[in-house]
Amino acid sequence: MPSGGQFRTQVGFGGFGGLSGRPPRDVVAVLVALFVTFALQFFESTAIIPATLRLTPAVWRSGFVWQLGTYAFSGVGGPSLWFLLELFIVYWFGADVHARLGRRGFWRLLALAVPGAALVAVVTQIALEALAGQSPTPVPFQLMQGQRVLMTILIASFATVYKDATILAFFVLPLRARWFVWLGIVIGFVAYLGTKDLSGFAGICGATGISVLALSRRVAGRRMQTRWLEWRRSRLTRKVDRLARKRGLRVVDRGDEGGGPTIH
Questions:
Q1: Beta 261-263 vs 251-253: how paired, if at all?
Q2: Which of the 8 DSSP states describes residue 134?
Q3: If DSSP codes are grouped into helix, strand and coil, which group holds residue 253?
Q4: Quick one: which of 6, 93, 129, 186 has the fewest CB in 10 Å?
Q5: In sequence order, what DSSP letters do the residues of 142-207 get, joined into one string?
Q6: pLDDT tens figures, 132-156
């Protein structure tokens, strides 16, 4: 459970914010898309659907440009509990990110980070093929397909918008939320050591960087707006105090009796 900082989520159904409120429908819709496409790959008659949606070299070889956006919503992996755990992580972080950003902000984040990460990966793969004369790995982009890139985006986003929160991992180990920004990169690097999927790892790094930069600007903008409003309030307060002293008025603070301070 989180504590301190700016962590004040109200609809964290299953997320770090607890079980209160309704689960965000947008996050549930993403999970449904991931699960359905994941299941379709195991049937011969429908396997072509998720295969066409995933990010492949067909983006630049055959003009399948839609894969730059659809790959993130095509579930990938074997029939194991690990896939369900990945979906749980997507929901866990996604629910709290959705709570902070709202519906429009949530989809705006995905609309920026998903194709952005794909472009980073594609450019890396094209460069590798140009240098080596062939693909350095038989299955490029596998590290960032489906729920994997969404986990990276949402974990990095959580670490950015809730950076001052403290998370009690396993209800015992206190961790600062800002440290989570490196989690996706570390997991991606460990996976890269086994797959040698450099383009996929580049996409993971790109997803992290884009998410952090996009939301850092948002957080910085809100912080500047708050400081501006506080400055205006203090300026008006000083102005009222000067006028009161100049005209011999006395400011009486009425406290909880209503109405705020009154000038007599």
A1: antiparallel
A2: S
A3: strand
A4: 186
A5: GGGSTHHHHHHHHHHHHHHHTTT-EEEETTTEEEEGGGGGGHHHHHHHHHHHHH--HHHHHHHHHH
A6: 877 778 889 999 999 999 999 999 9
Task: Determine phi and psi for 107, rounding to 5 degrees.
Answer: -75, -30
Phi/psi at 263 (nearest 5 deg)? -95, 125
User: Does residue 3 sit in helix, strand or coil?
Assistant: strand
Nearest to 77 by CA among 65, 66, 89: 89
Tokens of 65: 């440009």
Q: What span, in angstroms and rounded, lies between the C-alpha atoms of 110 and 107?
A: 5
Q: Give the torsion sign (CA, 170, 174, 177, 182).
A: negative
| Gap between the terminal Cα atoms of the chain | 49
Beta bridge partners, 166, equal 3, 176
16-20, 46-50, 154-158 — which is least confidently predicted?
16-20
Residues 6+ apart with CB under 8 A from 184: 151, 152, 155, 156, 204, 207, 208
Confidence (pLDDT) at 133: 78
Q: Counting Cβ atoms within 10 Å, is residue 188 exposed (0-12), middle (13-18) or buried (19+)?
A: buried
- Dihedral of CA 80/32/202/128: which sign? positive
Alpha carbons 32 and 26: distance in angstroms, whole number: 10
Q: Is 49 helix (H, G, I), strand (E, B) or coil?
A: helix
Q: Which amino acid is at 65?
A: V
Neighbouring residues of 195: CB distance < 8 A, sequence distance ≥ 6: 137, 139, 142, 143
